Amino acid sequence: MRLSFDEIQKEIKRVFVKYGMTEEKADTCARIHTESTYDGIYSHGTNRVARFVDYIKKGWVDINAEPTVEKEFGAIKILDGNMGPGVLNALYGTDCAIELANAYGIGMVGIKNTTHWMRGGTYGLYAANKGYIAIMWTNTESCMPPWGGKECRLGNNPFVMAIPGPEGKPALQLDMAISQYAYGKLQVTRLAGKKLPFPGGFDKDGNITDDPGAIEESMRIMPIGYWKGSSFSFMLDILGSALTGGIGAEDLDKKGMGSCGGASQVIIVIDPKQTCDRSYMSEIVEKATAYIKSSALSENSTGIYAPGEDYVAFRKQHDEKGIFVDDSVWAEIKTL
Amino acid sequence: MRLSFDEIQKEIKRVFVKYGMTEEKADTCARIHTESTYDGIYSHGTNRVARFVDYIKKGWVDINAEPTVEKEFGAIKILDGNMGPGVLNALYGTDCAIELANAYGIGMVGIKNTTHWMRGGTYGLYAANKGYIAIMWTNTESCMPPWGGKECRLGNNPFVMAIPGPEGKPALQLDMAISQYAYGKLQVTRLAGKKLPFPGGFDKDGNITDDPGAIEESMRIMPIGYWKGSSFSFMLDILGSALTGGIGAEDLDKKGMGSCGGASQVIIVIDPKQTCDRSYMSEIVEKATAYIKSSALSENSTGIYAPGEDYVAFRKQHDEKGIFVDDSVWAEIKTL
């Protein structure tokens, strides 16, 4: 079905208020879920509302908890998320990092003991739309074997880099998990009776495969770049813990409070006014985008895209036709 | 052949002094090349000396240039590398970032207009061995097609993350280029008559292939994680330029002053004393390392390794047997 931004936000807000959030916080969280849906990140927008409510019911998210300051030094602030709603913690953390960047050119906020921030890109775009460059990541419970192993020990640890667009144009953003495919993508592909476009993991016998069902069964999803992504994910996990005083994959697994329950997040924000002129930054972004697009297309290519063009395309489509929401997802939200 | 650390450093120093470096700078640069060799990164150690000399002769490196401060604000310092030796610029930049981290908890140095820093991991380990966490990268001239294209428009842009090890133990480090394989690896594999362990690019007809020769011919090496690495490399390039006021891939290509001639480097250093206790950081690193190693090994696995175990293994082997240097590489250095 197709709905308006307001219809979606209003309904999600109703649910969050019902489960104990204040009007104001519910409004913010509902807006973020709706924005993610508007940007085409359904998995962390409308499709995630029911699970968030489930986490509240299980006591895995403390709906009224607020972040508290643990440590402060110069351009660094460490927050305890107190297991409050990840979206509110991360928004607050990003605001703090922006304040620090205003004062020192760069600011870092570490949030320990927080919960799922939903779409990592929310905070990257939030900072970039205010004129800042952002580097952010979260660690997560394990869902991926380390390279050379076959049991899950690594998270897929989303990593975000965002930069303002050329003046008057949308921000550019990389928002990637370190697994080649999310489990959601495996499921959707399997249900459609299709193969993955590229091998995405191993079957239970250790054969590399593009069969999504075989990977779901083995739980042996593959990191990007094989051994490289495995190491990258590991570093995001340990740096995530060390830069926040929080916990890593093993303790998240032991805690067992759902996806990202107790996670550690790092938010680095930089004020590019202190590094180059605004007009120069616009030029960099425009020039680099034009440069990649100047390449001849490869065989069967659907085009060459700069990071973030996908969300801009979704917005356009959703503006024209209304925002897509899966019928069954919407029906479930209505029952909450 | 096998040589001692001193033998290698002394000979490389002789060469650098001959081509116009001061004794002190030549000593430092020779030490860095020797350390990279000692750590098993031959490609950016002994194997790179002749090319560095070639760049000096061509005027692509200004052997006596020193970095100058372009901008300073809070925890940010922007340097102009003035096309001086990349190793000296990057070491100086790392020292500045450490000073900023001491004052503000986090510090960022951007270096524009610099030259090849050789092994990125040099500066990560340098910071980590002094007790800091580091995130660093450089942009480079293009050598890889963007996803969906077949002409080179992206650099393989090395990305570094380093953290001190558990107390008394070696630092952990990720030091990866964004291409799945370096051209050097393709060449070595082809010369050995072998295939790559995993597909590493496309042949000239656009077929994905593990044949190194076919990829060398097409120049269509693949980024890690396909479209993900392509976007990651793009972001490293534009953030590299925006955070330094420097130039990106297209202008590096136009400049045509060899590998990384005029590159932009970002050096972020964080003092973990401001984020958690030293003993907690040790615990994080030990625990996470033990956790990945607790997984059952996959079929044909040679083991599960934490990032950086490779350089530790090389040091051990080189301590026992002497440092490996390719005969022809050494012979060439002798003629310089």
Report on this structure.
- 2 copies of one chain form a homodimer.
- In chain A, helix 6 crosses helix 7.
- Chain A has 2 domains: 2-61 and 325-335, Malate/L-lactate/L-sulpholactate dehydrogenase, four-helix barrel (Hypothetical Oxidoreductase Yiak, Chain: A, domain 1, Orthogonal Bundle), CATH 1.10.1530.10; 68-274, Malate/L-lactate/L-sulpholactate dehydrogenase, NADPH binding domain (Ribosomal Protein S8, Chain: A, domain 1).
- The relative contact order of chain A is 0.16.
- With 336 residues, chain A is an alpha+beta fold.
- Chain A is 43% helix and 15% strand.
- The two termini of chain A are 18 Å apart.
- In chain A, strand 6 (159-163) and strand 7 (172-176) form a beta hairpin.
- At the A-B interface, strand 4, strand 7, helix 8, helix 9 and helix 10 of A face strand 4, strand 7, helix 8, helix 9 and helix 10 of B.
